[in-house]
Design a protein that fits this description.
Strands 2-3-1-4-5 form a five-stranded parallel β-sheet, sandwiched between helices. Helix content is 43%, strand content 12%. It has eight helices and five strands; from the N terminus they run βαβαααβααβαβα. Helix 1 packs across helix 8. By secondary structure, the chain is α/β, with parallel strands linked by helices.
């Protein structure tokens, strides 16, 4: 900022979403490291549905509407908490990275069920969809690179490749209409896919896109004996 002017700190809410096994976990970690290195304060909000499922709250036991109501209540509460925490950061811009947003729920309900949920919480679809600054959809590996599709890295995941592709399409449809929805497809290898994600996020933030993205590796030391 110019001398004598005080620049207000900005808060960005960015959603990483997509079909199963699209690279969200890796993407969240890499984006967090990259933005932190650029001087941002980064908060990462975990996926609500996975939290509930791993905690024993399962849709097949509660029923779809009760489970989605739990997701809505938890998600709205967490977003308020993270936003209030972000407002306390006075010395740098803040990015809240969300592992899925409320609109993801639309992919798992009928139109009637989703509208009933909106009515219950007195919300509009536009209100919750456009509450985020950017939506970045990582396409499932089941669409284009099926040989890399796996259920092994998420105990709450159970979709077949065909089901994963179906979920992927429904999630894109749920977020369609957001002014900054970006689809990160599988047209490159996985490392380049994540690099494209990071570049798209820098573009949203108005930051120069790095010409080279630093990567960190965990290397196992050899047994010198």
């Amino acid at each position: 900022s110019k001398k004598g002017c005080v620049r207000l700190m900005a808060i960005y809410k960015i959603v990483l979403t997509g079909g199963p096994c699209g690279g969200k976990s890796t993407g969240l970690s890499r984006v967090e490291d990259s933005l932190t290195g650029r001087g941002y304060k980064v908060f990462v909000m975990p996926e609500t549905a996975t939290e509930l499922k791993t905690g024993g709250i399962k849709p097949e036991e509660l029923g779809i509407m009760a489970f989605q109501k739990a997701i809505f209540e938890s998600q709205l509460s967490k977003e308020r908490i993270y936003l209030e925490a972000a407002k306390e950061i006075k010395d740098r811009d803040v990015v809240i990275l969300l592992d899925r947003g409320i609109m993801d729920s639309k992919a798992f309900m009928t139109k009637k069920e989703f509208n009933e949920m909106l009515k219950y919480f007195e919300l509009s679809e536009t209100e919750i969809r456009d509450n985020y600054d950017g939506i970045f959809h990582l396409k499932t590996a089941a669409d284009g690179v099926e040989m890399f599709y796996t259920l092994g890295n998420n105990a709450a995941r159970s979709e077949t490749p065909a089901q994963a592709r179906d979920v992927d399409k429904k999630v894109i449809k749920a977020w369609t209409g957001h002014p900054h929805l970006r689809i990160i497809d599988n047209s490159t290898n996985f490392e380049e896919k994540i690099d494209r994600l990071i570049n798209e996020i820098y573009s949203l933030l108005g930051e120069p896109i790095p010409t080279e993205i630093e990567r960190k590796y965990l290397v196992e030391l050899p047994n010198i004996e």
